[in-house]
Amino acid sequence: MGRAPCCDKANVKKGQWSPEEDATLKTYLETYGTGGNWIHLPQKAGLRRCGKSCRLRWLNYLRPNIKHGGFTEEEDNIICTLYTQMGSRWSIIASHMPGRTDNDVKNYWNTKLKKRFLPPKQCLTANDCKNPNASSLTLPYVPKVETHDDQFQTQTPATLQMLSDVNSGLNAYNPSSSLNPTPLCNSKLMDLSQFGATSVSLSQDGSSVSDSCSIATVDKCGLLHGNGFINEDAGISMDFGFGGLPYDIVNQMWFGEKASEVVHPTCSTSFEGDFIFC
DNA sequence: AACCTGCACAACCGCCATGAT
DNA sequence: TATCATGGCGGTTGTGCAGGT
């Protein structure tokens, strides 16, 4: 049996709030407060709205000192930085910006910042992947392929979150390696195209929280750069320690989703350093 | 002028966490 | 300890508007 609905769905109004409803809710809350219960508030206030809807309306638009639109460059950087650290924890991100709501920040990211910092989802060829909206960040094409064994299993969101939690703090073992993702947003650090890269691979052991991450680039000459080894089934694995780019930061900034591996089925040779992409 | 398309934003839905009983 | 009600959150959808054809 499912959960009982929080309100009588048949008798509540949905959709845009009218100025009259706003005024009613605002007056009631300023006079009586929530009384610790949003569910019964609309009835007391004389509104035909769901309690959750009232709460959302108040928190996002009616409460004092709410700012709408006009995000500053500094706020862009805050959002970008925190997103790389913790992912889509919008309420936490919003808490770092007085007057901003999680909904506002989420919408702003989804409609503006994501396009600026992430490549388009469908890249069929390397030439397709120049994001027309990207300014200083021109990101390389990323091949998406299947992985074949446990060692290279696809990263799960849950694991990503754990990694974010770990990575967002100081590195207990090496403070000099502590992560400061701000440069990822503001510098050329992520712009591997300046090195002629046309392809990037990232990988990480998805079975547990790990302190390592991997990155490889394929340049215009077909050379794959990085250090690691070739796995017969899973393709090429690159690896370096904690001092490298944290997986989830790069993954979220570039791809916003699952891990990718550069794979070629005919590759089966161990290697170290640069090698010819076969 | 009418229609289409994409964008921005407001609001809703459903899941999970938390606190009260 | 178990159950339930409510709050909180993130993902998704709906709607209105602007610009293009």
Automatic annotation (TrEMBL):
Myb-like domain location: 9-62, 63-113
Pfam families, A to Z: Myb_DNA-binding (PF00249)
Subcellular location: Nucleus
UniProt entry keywords in alphabetical sequence: DNA-binding, Nucleus, Repeat, Transcription, Transcription regulation
GO molecular function: DNA binding
GO cellular component entries: nucleus
Protein name, entry field: Uncharacterized protein
PANTHER family for the chain: OS09G0431300 PROTEIN, TRANSCRIPTION FACTOR MYB36
CDD domains: SANT
Domain HTH myb-type, residue spans: 9-62, 63-117
SUPFAM superfamilies for the chain: Homeodomain-like (SSF46689)
